Amino acid sequence: MQQRISYHTFGCRLNQYDTEAIRTLLGNEYKMAEEGEDAQIHLVNTCSVTARADATARKAIARIHRESPSAKIVVTGCYAQRAPEELAALPGVSLVVGAADRARIKALVDRLNDASQAIPDSPLIAVSPIWTAKSFLDVSITEMTEHSRAFVKVQEGCNEACTFCIVPQTRGPSRSRPFDGVLEQIRSLVGSGYCEVVLTGVHLGDYGLDLPARRRLLPELIEAILALDGIERFRLSSIEPASISDDIIDLMASSPRFARHFHIPFQSGSDSVLERMKRRYKAREFEELIRRIGERIPDCGIGTDVICGFPGESDDDFLRTFEYIETLPITYVHAFTYSARPGSQAEHFADQVPGDIRKRRTRALKKLSADKNRQFAERHLQRELDVLLEPARRGGMIKQSGWSDNYLKVEVESEASEPTQADPRPRKDQAPDRELPRSKIQPVRITAIDENGTLKGIPIENDRAPCNAP
What we know:
Blueprint: E1 3-9, H1 13-26, E2 30-32, E3 41-46, H2 51-67, E4 72-77, H3 78-82, H4 84-88, E5 93-97, H5 105-113, E6 124-126, E7 149-156, H6 167-171, E8 175-176, H7 179-191, E9 196-201, H8 218-226, E10 233-236, H9 246-254, E11 261-263, H10 271-277, H11 283-296, E12 301-308, H12 315-327, E13 332-337, H13 355-378, E14 384-394, E15 397-404, E16 409-415, E17 440-449, E18 455-459
């Protein structure tokens, strides 16, 4: 009997890709439950980057068990690798699967559903040491459920030793997807109708360093992707400062298909803090990189990450960080309040910053981020942007929203008067009586900006086909 399974994904784009890979590994014996349908199995793909991420996963598991007490709960992801016993002790959890054991997840889930086997008294834990993961788990996916952008993971793990981070303990050593396998995966997704492909990895800049054959590194991979037929837009996810070469900047500047968007972690503008973090750059080097990008690629969206309240961070250290963000052409900031991760080196550092100070610094950076993003957005008023629009219904209107190539949020509205072609990928908000238009990259004339900094615009007529046209 075919089992219904519901997926719950938390965290980064890597986890979103990993969930799709798990769906592929489980095969047709396990069908994704539709909204409102009872599922016999709930798979929770967890994040563990912060204490809040851990708490979010635990709350989700508790809610699932409360609402579906007879369902089996399977937990995987970074939290599962880091603290499997902790998760196995939660009510309702039947199976915990680590990152190094993901290739055998179907056999493990099958075992849960095998009526011929005795039901174990305690949850099954399948978590091998992460350093046993020596090669990339190359799973070809065909779709990204409820996404109009396709995330393609090309690299896994990390060989760095940042003192605040536990990713090496949860995802293992750096390993790369074979070069030709990446291109074949992208061809397949573009053939399925995806307008935009986003390259993801834990440490994208390490791509190719471990491949046994002639090493083809990230710039060569990007060049090969841009040469593929049919791809409309290509984007990089987060990439370390030292990994952004002039070759990559030149490729972005010269190709209209390479989205004008970098997300580059900064973490701190204080060299002393960066040294304690074991980050391998100086604040001045980061500044020079950002200014070089801004000069070479006008209107490039540039995002960054900053940790607020790292152990030993003084008021002057934070002020230096704030001033760098304020003066550089950075368009948004992901500001994180520092939380000590179990197993990280920084967990044992002296000079822990009081919680109220950490939170105050985070609020200040988030306010600065909102101001800078609004200023960047306002520069685009009365201009035209190409936007990957994703339709959703709001009352009697079809409100389409999406992202420009330089990572600005844009909304357009049109009356939901006549039925239009259906998007074959399911959407939770799709009404049964009227279908939504297909996602497409649409030229939009920007006319206004709302109080939240979201741009408003009017679609410009064009003859582009929807992304998922056959």
